[in-house]
UniProtKB/TrEMBL annotation:
Taxonomy of the source species: Bacteria, Candidatus Uhriibacteriota
Keywords: Membrane, Transmembrane, Transmembrane helix
Transmembrane helix among keywords: yes
Coiled-coil intervals: none
TM stretches of this protein: 72-105, 117-133, 139-155, 162-178, 184-207, 219-236, 274-297, 309-327, 333-353, 374-395
Name the UniProt record assigns to this protein: Glycosyltransferase RgtA/B/C/D-like domain-containing protein
Length: 525
């Protein structure tokens, strides 16, 4: 089996298979979340208007006065896709291209590590349901993960510090999650300390000094690049204040206990993490179980680089697993670093397996054809399960979003509501689709409810109560200055809210479809 899988043909087969899965995942007009509509619109605005510093479309956030685009370079890269194709089709094509690139970067790092079976580790990442799903989202995370993996490898290998420096600058301009690169700096440094302490048996402070001397240039290069990226950012100095809100209040504190935050910010159980990513945890368990005996058996135990790379990826994988148990969005970082942890242990594990276990297994299993058939059957089952799950996730129209669901609402609003008026909506997320379809009107809040809560907690509570059918309908006119309401019927309290509107003499239903109902009032504001 090993001989038949070696060489470029197997690599080509894997990436052709990956490309087909990516195309399949993007088939159809639906999107997993509304963010893709926002990114498409922002790329179009950047193309047509240049850099904008106010965002009047979300009236009950700070954005209406001071706006920071944390995905600036991502939107620059999207411009060709939304220009040469229908914008939403372009977003799907970009997801295929960027997702493919991320897996390719992971594969190239595995090759650079000289790990055995880099194709199989890449395949394990492809079979990770959570990771594959995150990498197919028409959003920034796919390229952000690729950039983080590449910069982490440059940081560890101490190769091309010029690329490392400018890559750090680009990361700040590209993605609001740039502080994760500091975790890589910390992991590389601590791994250097641990490796020095274990191999040379000196004092901890001596190991700390040795690690600092070995890594101080890389630390200064990355930190200098991040600082330069912040200072010379197109939105400086507002980007500093935005980072405090976006990174600290949303990413770290996370108001999930008091706000209806996005699904990706809720925790993932450890059981679900393993079940949805079995293809990644099985190699980790195998490599980890054979790593220590393989380390003692190996003749390269005095190579500090071999040991420090294991600890670097082990620390990062462990850290991101803990973060994933707090907010499931961090799984996009956890999975590739789990793969790299397994791959870094693989040379030691392979050595022990070939020397000690392989002869015993070959004696026990006398017929190789039986082994091959078993592997083929297992792979076929994995592919079938993964493909079925991909198709299922693609066709979940009851939870996914499309342009057709909201276009009747924005068509009516464009025709009957004066430009510049605010439209009330019963959820913070689908306002991004309304914004994409109609930028001649304003909305309450979008991107994250924290932006409204931080701007005006009282208005947030009022909006939340009204959308739940518990508030005073008159406040829609008096507090939010909105005469038009768009209700997504898929929300839990939508029925109660609509019953309240139907019994009100202030609003009348003007249009609807399977997903949305639109109400309007002729009362003067």
């Amino acid at each position: 089996m090993e001989d038949s899988m070696k060489g470029k043909p197997f690599t080509i087969y894997i990436f052709v298979f990956l490309l087909l899965l990516l195309i399949l995942s993007e088939a159809g007009p639906v999107f997993p979340d509304p963010d893709s509509f926002y990114h498409a619109k922002m790329a179009m605005i950047l193309r047509d208007q240049g850099i904008i510093h106010t965002f009047p479309w979300f009236q009950f956030t700070d954005f209406k006065n001071v706006f920071v685009n944390p995905h600036f370079l991502y939107h620059v890269l999207l411009i060709p896709f939304v220009t040469f194709f229908d914008p939403l089709v372009g977003m799907k094509i970009s997801a295929v291209v960027f997702g493919f690139l991320t897996f390719f970067v992971l594969f190239r790092i595995l090759k650079a590590m000289h790990t055995p079976f880099p194709e199989w580790f890449t395949l394990a990442a492809i079979f990770s349901i959570n990771f594959f799903h995150r990498m197919t989202l028409p959003r920034a995370p796919a390229l952000a993960v690729a950039l983080l993996l590449g910069l982490t490898w440059l940081l560890f290998s101490q190769k091309n510090r010029l690329f490392l420096f400018f890559g750090s600058v680009i990361f700040v301009w590209f993605y609001h999650g740039w502080p994760v690169l500091l975790l890589s700096v910390f992991a590389v440094f601590v791994a250097e300390v641990v490796a020095s302490h274990l191999l040379f048996l000196g004092s901890f402070f001596q190991a700390l000094h040795t690690a600092w001397q070995a890594r101080k240039k890389d630390i200064f290069v990355v930190c200098g690049g991040l600082l330069l990226g912040l200072i010379f950012h197109p939105y400086f100095p507002q980007n500093i204040f935005f980072s405090v809100l976006d990174i600290f209040k949303i990413g770290i504190v996370n108001y999930q206990s008091i706000l209806p935050v996005g699904q990706e910010w809720y925790p993932m159980t450890f059981v679900d993490l393993i079940l949805w990513n079995t293809s990644v945890f099985v190699p980790l368990a195998l490599c980890f179980s054979l790593f220590l005996p393989g380390l003692f058996l190996s003749k390269t135990t005095q190579n500090k680089k071999d040991i420090s790379i294991v600890f670097t990826f082990l620390f990062l994988a462990g850290g991101y697993i803990l973060l994933t148990l707090k907010s499931n969005r961090y799984v996009e970082y956890a999975i590739p670093f789990i793969i790299l942890t397994s791959a870094s242990m693989a040379p030691f594990s392979k050595h022990f397996f070939e020397q000690e276990l392989s002869p015993l297994i070959q004696t026990w299993i006398s017929k190789k054809s039986w082994r091959k058939k078993t592997v083929v059957i297992m792979l076929f089952l994995l592919v079938s399960i993964f493909a079925a799950d991909t198709i299922h996730m693609t066709l979940q129209k009851e939870t996914y979003y499309s342009e057709a669901q909201y276009k009747p609402a924005t068509d009516w609003i464009r025709t009957h509501v004066p430009a510049g008026e605010t439209v009330f909506h019963n959820s913070w997320d689908f306002s991004l689709i309304l914004f994409y379809l109609d930028d001649t009107h304003n909305y309450i809040v979008g991107l994250d409810p924290t932006f409204m809560y931080d701007f005006d907690p009282k208005a947030f509570r009022t909006w939340q109560d009204i959308a739940a059918g518990k508030g005073n309908i008159k406040d829609i006119l008096s507090v939010f200055h909105a005469r038009t309401i768009v209700v997504d019927t898929r929300l839990d309290d939508a029925k109660t809210f609509m019953e309240q509107l139907d019994h009100s003499s202030l609003f009348t239903e003007v249009t609807k479809n399977e997903w949305i109902h639109v109400y309007h009032s002729t009362t003067s504001l």
